[in-house]
């Protein structure tokens, strides 16, 4: 049986089952159940479309169509929304599953990995919403979207790597879960998500090119709305950085997980 980073095929199946359990438990007790995982991002994206496309009518430089900015915005904000959900879910995954961690023997590092997958739901919804909006508004969809699986893979590799670190830290420092939403909001506005990188001063733009989150957002925008190839050197940089963070994070997680019982 193949072993990758200490995980087997059995662990992969367990991670998928944990993902399904997390998705079901999140909406437990609601009448529509897991349907909210689809309805919530659609509602939010519809609000952004209405506000920026029909109320403020913001236009991209050199563009006459009001929906061009909306398409550009959603192509970046959708992946960011998925990043936020993945990071938040992974951070609280071990603490939230304290009963399981204390009573069942399994690889607890699977918890933040499975929790990271929750962001894939909102990402899928946002990409489908974007593609439908493009077709309805008369925009073409090019062959570049075939590169989405590569970008998504690198995206979630990086987010999962961060989530493993934060999940372990949150067990011993619960304040992290309280301050993290504010940190992610600040990071969103620091990252060119709502504004283009061309609109910021040179030094800030240069720093943004080293921001892994911007590299990811820009890659989505390139293949979906700009119909161009993403910056491969940037994606390689994010992939290697994510792999480094993942390997060190797994080592640190496995070193301290023996103390989870006393901390939970």
Span of the ends, CA to CA: 33 Å
Number of strands: 0
Average pLDDT number: 88
Structural class by SSE content? mainly alpha
Strand count, sense and barrel status of the largest sheet are: none
What sequence of helices (H) and strands (E) makes up the elements?
A: HHHHHHHHHHHHH
Helix content: over 70%
Q: How much of the polypeptide forms β-strand, as a percent range?
A: under 5%
- Rg is 19 Å
Number of helices: 13
* Number of structural domains: 1
Q: Low-confidence spans: pLDDT under 50, at least 5 residues?
A: none
- Please state the overall shape, judged from the principal axes of the Cα atoms: globular
What does this structure look like?
With 264 residues, this protein is mostly helical. It has one domain. Helices cover 73% and strands 0% of the residues. The chain contains 13 helices and no strands. Helix 1 crosses helix 6. It is globular.
């Amino acid at each position: 049986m193949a072993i990758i980073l200490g995980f087997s095929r059995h662990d992969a199946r367990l991670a998928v089952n944990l993902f399904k359990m997390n998705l079901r438990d999140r909406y437990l007790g609601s009448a529509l159940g897991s349907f909210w995982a689809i309805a919530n991002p659609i509602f939010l994206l519809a609000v952004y479309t209405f506000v920026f496309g029909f109320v403020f009518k913001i236009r991209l430089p050199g563009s006459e169509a009001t929906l061009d900015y909306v398409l550009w915005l959603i192509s970046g904000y959708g992946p960011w929304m998925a990043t936020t959900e993945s990071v938040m879910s992974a951070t609280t995954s071990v603490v939230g599953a304290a009963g399981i961690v204390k009573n069942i023997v399994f690889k607890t590092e699977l918890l933040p990995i499975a929790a990271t997958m929750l962001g894939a739901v909102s990402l899928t919804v946002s990409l489908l919403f974007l593609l439908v909006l493009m077709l309805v508004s008369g925009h073409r969809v090019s062959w570049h979207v075939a590169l989405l699986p590569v970008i998504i893979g690198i995206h979630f590799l990086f987010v999962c790597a961060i989530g493993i670190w934060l999940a372990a830290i949150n067990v011993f420092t619960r304040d992290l879960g309280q301050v993290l939403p504010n940190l992610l909001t600040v990071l969103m506005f620091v990252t060119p998500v709502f504004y283009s990188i061309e609109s910021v001063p040179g030094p800030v733009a240069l720093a943004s090119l080293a921001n892994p989150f911007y590299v990811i957002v820009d890659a989505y925008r390139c293949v979906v709305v700009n119909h161009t190839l993403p910056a491969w050197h940037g994606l390689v940089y994010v992939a290697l950085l994510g792999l480094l963070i993942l390997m060190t994070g797994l080592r640190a997680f496995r070193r301290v997980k023996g103390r989870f019982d006393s901390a939970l």
